[in-house]
Specification:
about 150 residues; mainly alpha; Methane Monooxygenase Hydroxylase, Chain G, domain 1; elongated
């Protein structure tokens, strides 16, 4: 069962590395002038990898339970303390996961900055183009003129 757990950790490490690579592509897309056409395939790949990682985590927890260990991080720590090969692979997986977490946090900040910029641009446009009588409003209608 330790070999199956080791194999799962190796698969999980590969999936996390793939996820980190996709996050790097996402960073490049988010810093591009027009990311709209670049992001959909990246989001699809991220979604698929998240599903794969969830399945691998479930499998890892099942294997840990079969070995008499608790699920999650605590169980892996106990299992790794008893086997050098597991400890090495677990360490690699944790480092890869931390790297992916940093990329994801950075991308979240890039998205926030872009959203703030877009909101400020929209506000500036709304101030620069006040509603004038006879012009269509956002609902496609000409606003009623106030009674004099």
């Amino acid at each position: 069962m330790k070999d199956a757990l080791l194999a799962t950790l190796i698969e999980e490490y590969s999936a996390v590395e793939a996820f980190a690579s996709v996050l790097t592509l996402e960073t490049k897309a988010l810093t591009a002038l027009s990311p709209v056409e670049l992001l959909p395939p990246i989001i699809e790949k991220k979604t698929a990898l998240i599903g794969e990682l969830a399945q691998l985590e479930t499998r890892r927890d099942e294997l840990l339970a079969g070995m008499g260990f608790p699920a999650g991080w605590a169980g892996m720590e106990v299992a790794a303390s008893a086997d050098e090969r597991l400890a090495g692979q677990w360490s690699l997986l944790q480092k890869a996961a931390e790297r992916a977490r940093r990329f994801n946090t950075s991308n979240g900040e890039l998205i926030r900055v872009r959203m703030d910029y877009n909101q400020r641009a929209l506000t500036a446009l709304q101030v620069a183009l006040p509603q004038k009588a006879g012009f269509y409003g956002p609902d496609g209608r000409i606003p009623a003129r106030p009674a004099v």
